[in-house]
TrEMBL record:
Residues 1-56 form the SAM domain. This is SAM domain (Sterile alpha motif). PROSITE patterns: SAM_DOMAIN. Pfam families: SAM_1 (PF00536). Transmembrane segments: none annotated. GO terms for cellular component: cytoplasm. It comes from Popillia japonica (Japanese beetle). It comes from the Eukaryota. InterPro entries: SAM, SAM/pointed_sf. PANTHER family: PROTEIN BICAUDAL C (PTHR10627:SF69), SCP160 (PTHR10627). Residues 61-85 are annotated as: Disordered. The keyword Repeat applies. Keywords: Repeat.
Amino acid sequence: MFASLGLEKYIGLFLSHEIDLMAFSSMTEKDLAELGVNAFGPRRKMLLAIAELKKRANHFLPAPGAERKTSSSTANSACSPRDKW
């Protein structure tokens, strides 16, 4: 994801703080600044990506009362953490 935004240099920062996509999707502008994303442009791109992640997550929420099924997929387990960013 970061590569498509031109933010590859921040991948190591997020990995060193053990921030995965779930944690990333809940970050605020203040969180990003505290983490060390001080430049306005990259921080804004990240906030837009977070908003898009939230939008996509809400799109796939089940309707109220709908049965939620889970699956045990191991497809993502073969990817390294760096590949997910």
